[in-house]
């Protein structure tokens, strides 16, 4: 072997070992999607539906691994510490990417430095509800009720610092409505108190309240999205009820370790975007009362994440909310 050939072989070997070259055939092995929620719920269905469609797009198995607990921190920490190679994904949410670092004094991961949001898949629409005894039908009624029953308006939540409670506080500040927070350990007791008129308001996930709304036990005052919810088309939004630009939701997406190579990240992002445009995917989400989102560019995602953080930072600071791990 002459010297020239030896040099060419050495150069080829070096290129094969380079990270960019190694990722050119991404994905070359199964991918793990870590979901921070227990099996069986609507968000678990979202994860498994995505995994099925994504497996087809990438021509590799995508396996869902459930790691619930600690308000998504167990799963988020696991992904943040995983190899940044595109083979470990997080089913991210506003809890894991935005709220946790604002609420907890000590956090086992840093979403700004250790995770990168690549897609927002869906939203769980939120609705402001009351019971049939208050007589409140709309935002104007709520404001009047608040003035007429000063100090006697209470709202249910499923606990301090969760998206539903924070959204209620945001609504209160934007509508100039006074209401006392009554936290409960779970949705069922919170709704029971509301329907018994022990509390008079609650922001809830639409899928949970919808059966009670249809049964006439709860009254939908307004939804919190930028446009009317497909699940409650007759219910106006907060935005169209006197607070232009109002938007609050619980959203779910995909995040990868921050150091994931660009070509792997771009391949993954494009494949997920293609799944999001599939009518079967949107229909499966709709069956879980989840609203599918349209694909966004990375710049749009980054801007959305920054705006979401800015909005919730103010709500949390104004109410001096802090949580212990």
Describe this structure in words.
The chain is α/β, with parallel strands linked by helices and 325 residues long. It folds into 2 domains: 29-122 and 248-317, Bordetella uptake gene, domain 1 (D-Maltodextrin-Binding Protein, domain 2, 3-Layer(aba) Sandwich), CATH 3.40.190.150; 125-239, D-Maltodextrin-Binding Protein, domain 2, CATH 3.40.190.10. The protein has helices at residues 3-17, 19-22, 42-58, 73-80, 94-103, 111-114, 139-148, 163-175, 187-195, 206-214, 262-276, 279-286, 298-318, and strands spanning 31-35, 62-66, 88-93, 115-124, 126-131, 154-157, 180-183, 201-205, 218-223, 250-257, 291-292. The strands form 2 sheets. The protein has a 6-stranded mixed β-sheet with strand order 2-1-3-10-4-11, with helices on both faces. Strands 7-6-8-5-9 form a 5-stranded mixed β-sheet. Strand 6, helix 8 and strand 7 (180-183) form a beta-alpha-beta unit. The protein starts with a helix and ends in a 7-residue tail after the last helix. Residues 3-23 have low confidence and may be disordered.
In short:
This protein is α/β, with parallel strands linked by helices and 325 residues long.
Q: Examine the coordinates and then state which fold CATH places here, giving the name of the CATH topology of the largest domain.
A: D-Maltodextrin-Binding Protein, domain 2
Q: In total, how many domains does the architecture comprise?
A: 2
Our measurement of the CA-to-CA distance between the termini, rounded to an integer number of angstroms, reads: 63 Å
Low confidence ranges: 3-23
Q: How many DSSP helices? A: 13
Q: List how many beta strands DSSP finds.
A: 11
Shape, principal axes of CA atoms? globular
Strand order of the largest sheet: 2-1-3-10-4-11
Helix content: 40-55%
């Amino acid at each position: 072997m002459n010297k020239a050939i030896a040099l060419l072989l050495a150069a080829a070997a070096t290129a094969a070992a380079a990270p960019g070259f190694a990722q050119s055939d991404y994905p070359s092995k199964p991918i793990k999607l870590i979901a921070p929620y227990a099996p069986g719920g609507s968000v678990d269905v979202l994860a498994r539906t995505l995994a099925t469609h994504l497996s087809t797009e990438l021509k590799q198995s995508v396996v869902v691994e459930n790691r619930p607990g600690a308000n998504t921190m167990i799963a988020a920490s696991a992904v943040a510490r995983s190899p940044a190679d595109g083979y470990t994904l997080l089913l991210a949410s506003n809890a894991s990417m935005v709220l946790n670092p604002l609420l907890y004094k000590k956090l086992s991961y840093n979403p700004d430095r250790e995770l990168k949001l690549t897609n927002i898949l869906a939203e769980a629409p939120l609705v402001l509800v009351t019971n049939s005894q208050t007589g409140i039908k709309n935002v104007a009624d709520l404001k009047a009720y608040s003035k007429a029953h000063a100090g006697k308006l209470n709202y249910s939540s499923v606990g301090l610092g969760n998206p539903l409670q924070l959204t209620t506080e945001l609504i209160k500040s934007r509508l100039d409505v006074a209401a006392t927070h009554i936290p409960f350990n779970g949705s069922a007791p919170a709704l029971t108190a509301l329907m018994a008129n022990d509390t008079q308001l609650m922001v809830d996930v639409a899928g949970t309240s919808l059966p009670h709304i249809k049964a006439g036990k709860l009254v939908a005052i307004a939804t919190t999205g930028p446009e009317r919810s497909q699940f409650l088309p007759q219910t106006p939004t907060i935005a169209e009820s006197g607070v232009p630009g109002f938007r609050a939701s619980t959203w779910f997406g995909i995040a990868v370790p921050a150091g994931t190579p660009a070509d792997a990240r771009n391949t993954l992002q494009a494949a997920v975007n293609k799944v999001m445009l599939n009518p079967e995917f949107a229909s499966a989400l709709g069956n879980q009362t989840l609203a599918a989102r349209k694909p966004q560019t990375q710049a749009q995602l980054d801007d959305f994440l920054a705006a979401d953080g800015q909005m919730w930072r103010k709500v949390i600071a104004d109410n001096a909310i802090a949580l212990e791990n």
